Amino acid sequence: MSLLHHDAKIDRLAEIPLFADADKTALKHLAQAADDVSLTAGTTIINEGHRHNEGYVVIDGTFDVEVGGDTVAEIGPGEMIGELGFFGHGAASATVRAKTDVTALVLPYNRFDQILDDHPPLAKALAIGLAARLAAMDARHGGD
Fold this sequence. Notes:
Layout: H1 6-15, H2 24-33, E1 35-39, E2 44-46, E3 54-60, E4 63-67, E5 70-75, E6 80-81, E7 95-98, E8 102-108, H3 109-118, H4 120-140
Antiparallel strand pairs: 1-8, 2-7, 3-6, 3-8, 4-5, 4-7
Helix pairs in contact: 1-2, 2-3, 3-4
């Protein structure tokens, strides 16, 4: 049973910076592809060094991001987890664990690939958004 109706999924996806430039049709297709889940605190959704097959949009609650056992970030409502995997299915660079109970939208990579094929401007918008996020992370960690 879905926790969010279709229009609420579209609204939540539109709030994600990575999807800010997506058109309404692309957002509708993303919402159709997304499943909503409830996770209890302590649930691990991504394991460092392992492959994963989906991205998550946080609706409610908080995740901890751990690298080498150390918490390096907290991800909350309106943020996305696992989005780099949309562009390459390599091993995860961090472990992501629910700090609190969480409600999230799950976007399986295989469905996302089809949406990108159907909506090429979305791929460009995502690439621009990811580049900005990577540049910000690099700046925080003293890179050029």
